[in-house]
Amino acid sequence: MKLVSACLCAVNCKYNGKNNLKLDLVELLQEGDVIPVCPEQLGGLPTPRLPAEIKAGSGQDVLAGNSKVLNKYGDDVTDSYIRGAYETLKIARLAGVDTAILKSRSPSCGSGYIYDGSFNNKLRQADGVTAALLKKNGIRVMDEDEYKEKGEYQD
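The structure assignment produced for this chain is given below.
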């Protein structure tokens, strides 16, 4: 069993109310091999919502209280991102999940690279809040591109 970002499974939970459909991940969902999650919704954020980015730090920094997640108007949404990360971890533990396939570049789900907090589409090396928490708890995390590169699905 794997966790998958719900937006990759055609759930319209992305910040703009749309999704990031990956057909092969939808097939895995239909086969019962994945559990779709949206950490932002689990944290209480609405859909649609303003885009948000981690300001001057990483998901690890957010979890440690050393950085914040701000939306594009500067409102602090850190608590919702942390709450969503812990709810996602709870689901992973209950389901015995050992792998998560999460949406790249997201302030929650990004693994390896996230947007830099400037809202200018610039990336920096870091994990999102949920990806960082899952990794810290021994769950293998990869984004949809890494999962595809490993040959585990074809788009």
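Interim note for the steering committee: Strands lie at 2-5, 34-37, 52-55, 68-71, 99-102, 113-115, 123-125, 140-143. Residues 2-149 form one domain.
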